[in-house]
Write a structure and sequence with these properties.
It is built from 2 helices and 3 strands; from the N terminus they run ββααβ. The protein has a 3-stranded antiparallel sheet with strand order 2-1-3, with helices on one face. The longest helix has 11 residues, at 37-47. With 67 residues, it is α+β, with helices and mostly antiparallel strands.
Length: 67
């Protein structure tokens, strides 16, 4: 079984110096014990209703398998 970290380019991060623009990714979550990326997204969404409430676009998610 596989483990994934799921990231998104959506949203904002503010640096301690508010005059400095930060462009980065946000971690949406980690998923373990899945067969592939599709199962990872399904499991993540089933276990985290807040993702829909926050209006993240699932099509923007970036998945990386963790070893």
């Amino acid at each position: 079984m596989k483990k994934f970290i799921i990231l998104t380019p959506e949203g904002e991060t503010i640096a301690p110096n508010e005059n400095f623009e930060v462009n980065n990714l946000q971690v949406i979550g980690f998923v373990e014990n899945v067969k592939d990326e599709n199962e990872a997204i399904s499991k993540l969404l089933k276990e985290n209703d807040w993702i829909f409430d926050a209006q993240f676009n699932v099509a923007e998610f970036i998945l990386h398998e963790l070893l």
